[in-house]
């Protein structure tokens, strides 16, 4: 570790030297960092996200970033940088790329929901061809497009350090997804990737076929997000066929697709034999009661691996929900289940109320809470779920990560 500099003092001096006005938000965060007694032993993540503030803050601009990285160049104890929800453009991406090329201590970089485009993606991906320190990169919500995604696919062929890459909501396309799938047949370091909401004009599920083919040979990927891929039962069948041969994947996100009970039948058969999958997200599909029963049968009979299941908004009635509640009575491994958005009739309300009241289902491990009106048990919604901290994170840890989000407890996705 380097000698601890006074970050705030150095920032003030850098602003003067570069004739750049101080950003009071950056100044305040650096002052807080200077007071951190553990900074030299544990390192620190500078939280400069432009959201999650009770008092509005001036968002970080390209010029602000130029001053900031000049300060961080000598601060080896800064191991994480959260710049989400700011107004950084391709010019800021160029500054960050230069910083990454010369930096050997940054482990976590969050650039989600800025204004970085294709050329900025090329610069950042280019820097990662040589960078050997960064473990986790979030580009979520930057409209880098298909070509920008291709630069990251190319980077994955050479980079052997990066463990987590988030390209969700980046407008990547078919060619990019296929290129990433091919790259991951060779890449042995990446453990988690988010490919949610690509722009696909082809409805033949070609990308799912390539991803399934990759899963047959990839032995390092632990977490895979394929939300909003317009995936149908055919695609689910291809993934399940591949996962019979995969022994590493623990978190599979298939939320917001077109999966029905026929597709869940393949997942049910997979769960009977798969010994590694711990989290399954089927949020916002249409599995209905038949699909819920397929899952419950797998959980009752042989599966003792799955720990978290999300079936939010799947048109399931009491019949399917009661079957899952009964499965939880015999399967002690399943600890987190999220059911809101289905048809919570009297039987479903009673069943889940009993699970919670007997302690089988902890209140922090589901998205419903029982209450009674005129002697009738009803369920209210809680703000828990697998995606709770995907787009935001509290500045202070008010609760244990597992109570708010199962994925953060099983596979850490917040920082490095």
UniProtKB/TrEMBL annotation:
The keyword Secreted belongs to this UniProt entry's keyword annotation: no
Keyword Repeat attached: yes
Keyword entries, A-Z: Repeat
SMART domains, per database record: LRR_RI
Protein name: LRC34 protein
Source species: Callaeas wilsoni (North Island kokako)
């Amino acid at each position: 570790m380097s000698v601890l500099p006074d970050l705030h003092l150095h920032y003030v001096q850098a602003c003067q030297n570069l004739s750049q006005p101080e950003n009071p938000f950056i100044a305040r965060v650096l002052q807080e960092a200077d007071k951190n007694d553990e900074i030299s032993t544990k390192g620190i993540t500078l939280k400069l996200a432009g959201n999650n503030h009770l008092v509005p803050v001036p968002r970080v601009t390209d010029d602000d970033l130029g001053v900031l990285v000049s300060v961080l160049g000598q601060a080896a104890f800064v191991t994480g940088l959260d710049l989400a929800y700011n107004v950084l453009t391709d010019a800021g991406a160029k500054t960050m790329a230069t910083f990454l090329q010369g930096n050997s201590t940054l482990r976590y970089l969050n650039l989600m929901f800025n204004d970085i485009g294709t050329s900025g993606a090329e610069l950042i991906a280019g820097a990662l061809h040589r960078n050997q320190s960064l473990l986790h990169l979030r580009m979520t919500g930057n409209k880098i497009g298909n070509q920008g995604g291709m630069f990251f696919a190319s980077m994955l062929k050479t980079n052997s350090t990066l463990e987590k890459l988030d390209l969700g909501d980046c407008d990547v396309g078919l060619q990019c997804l296929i290129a990433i799938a091919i790259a991951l047949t060779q890449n042995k370091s990446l453990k988690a990737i988010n490919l949610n909401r690509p722009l696909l004009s082809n409805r033949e599920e070609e990308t799912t076929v390539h991803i399934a083919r990759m899963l047959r040979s990839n032995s390092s990927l632990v977490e895979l997000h394929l939300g909003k891929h317009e995936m149908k039962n055919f695609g689910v069948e291809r993934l399940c066929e591949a996962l019979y041969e995969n022994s590493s994947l623990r978190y599979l996100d298939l939320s917001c697709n077109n999966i029905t009970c026929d597709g869940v039948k393949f997942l049910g058969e997979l769960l009977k034999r798969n010994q590694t999958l711990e989290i399954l997200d089927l949020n916002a599909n249409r599995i209905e009661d038949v699909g819920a029963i397929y899952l419950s049968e797998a959980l009752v009979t042989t599966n003792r691996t799955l720990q978290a299941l999300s079936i939010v908004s799947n048109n399931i009635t009491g019949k399917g929900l009661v079957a899952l509640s009964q499965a939880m009575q015999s399967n002690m491994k399943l600890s987190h289940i999220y059911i809101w958005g289905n048809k919570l009739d009297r039987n479903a309300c009673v069943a889940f109320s009993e699970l919670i009241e007997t302690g089988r289902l902890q209140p922090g491990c589901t998205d419903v809470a029982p209450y009674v009106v005129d002697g009738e048990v009803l369920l209210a919604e809680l703000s828990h779920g697998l995606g709770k901290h995907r787009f935001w994170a509290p500045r202070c840890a008010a609760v244990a990560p597992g109570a708010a989000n199962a994925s953060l407890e099983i596979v850490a996705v917040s920082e490095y």
